[in-house]
Design goal:
The protein has 15 helices and no strands. With 308 residues, it is mostly helical. It has one domain. The longest helix has 27 residues.
């Protein structure tokens, strides 16, 4: 049995799967913040994700046939793109957890989804990848939905809400996620002809190794006792790590196939998944305005999906 070659449309189910797993990861990490703190809850995603990333790489090598597989060159340019993406993703995850502490689960996630417009801008500047007309329409429609979701329910409170910490943390998180997507796309473009399966598997393992060393080393020096607490929280941390690793593999595999702006726009399907988590797991009510926002996000997702 061998891994099949990825069809032109394969990025769509890969992104949807990654978004679903990322929703589970967000929920698990949100629960860990109370006991471990923001930075430690950020670390578990990368630390506990490493074994799963390594296992996936081994499976890709075995089922792709190591002898027949074009092995990529770890050039300085590739490592620079990947390292920039990894550091940006690390910062984005920490900022997202801070945003989710300010308001309910789904609104914390949606603030970060302003990344869609930002990744379009960064992609043009850094990679010279112009979005198509359909992608631009999907970006605008979906972002309008995100704005509706981020508005408070109380009349006249919108301006105060956007001045609050949740807005700044969310917007900063979106910017860092956008930079991470562009970084990973830039890294993938350094490996023309290499299987997207291998691009995703090896890229995520290297990125998470760097993220674990950087953040783990910082916490080890600053809060030595926190490592024992992370060890005690292994059950929920394993869930967060496994889902985070598989989500990252999905994102990076997809960015080897499509421009970052397409991948992140379709990735807004995560907002719909977060709605379900918000309603079912955290028992949080969704207003009509938020429902309208979800519908707009859904419309944007459908438009971008129609491009394949």
């Amino acid at each position: 049995m061998e891994l099949p070659a990825l069809a032109s449309w394969a990025w769509i189910p890969i992104v949807v799967g990654a978004a679903f797993m990322q929703t589970i990861r967000n929920a698990a990490q949100r629960s860990l913040v109370t006991d471990l703190g923001t930075l430690a809850a950020t670390l578990v995603r990368f630390l506990y994700g490493l074994p799963f990333a390594l296992l996936w790489l081994l499976l890709v090598i075995v089922f792709s046939g190591a002898g027949a597989m074009a092995w990529p060159d770890l050039s300085p340019t590739y490592l620079a793109w990947l390292g920039g993406g990894a550091i940006s993703q690390l910062a984005a995850t920490a900022l997202l957890l801070l945003a989710m502490k300010q308001r309910n689960f789904i609104v914390g996630v949606t603030f970060s989804k302003t990344e869609v417009l930002q990744v379009g801008l960064f992609g043009v500047v850094a990679l010279q990848e112009l979005p198509t007309v359909a992608a631009a329409i999907a970006m605008v429609v979906a972002t309008l939905g995100v704005v509706l979701l981020s508005l408070p329910r109380e009349p006249g409170a919108a301006l105060a809400n956007w001045r609050g910490n949740a807005a700044w943390f969310g917007l900063a998180s979106g910017a860092c996620f956008a930079l991470a997507s562009v970084g990973y796309r830039g890294a993938a473009l350094q490996w023309p002809g290499v299987s997207a399966w291998l691009v995703g598997a090896l890229g995520v393992l290297l990125a998470q190794l760097l993220q674990t060393v950087l953040l783990g080393g910082w916490l080890w020096l600053r809060q030595p006792g926190i490592m024992a607490a992370i060890g005690r929280a292994w059950r929920l941390s394993t869930v967060a790590g496994a889902m985070g690793a598989m989500a990252s593999i999905g994102w990076m595999t997809a960015t080897a196939l499509r421009p970052a702006v397409d991948v992140r726009t379709l990735g807004l399907v995560e907002v719909l998944f977060s709605y379900l988590v918000s309603r079912r797991l955290f028992r949080e009510k969704i207003s009509r305005k938020e429902l309208a926002g979800l519908l707009l996000v859904g419309a944007g997702v459908l438009v971008i999906s129609a491009q394949w």
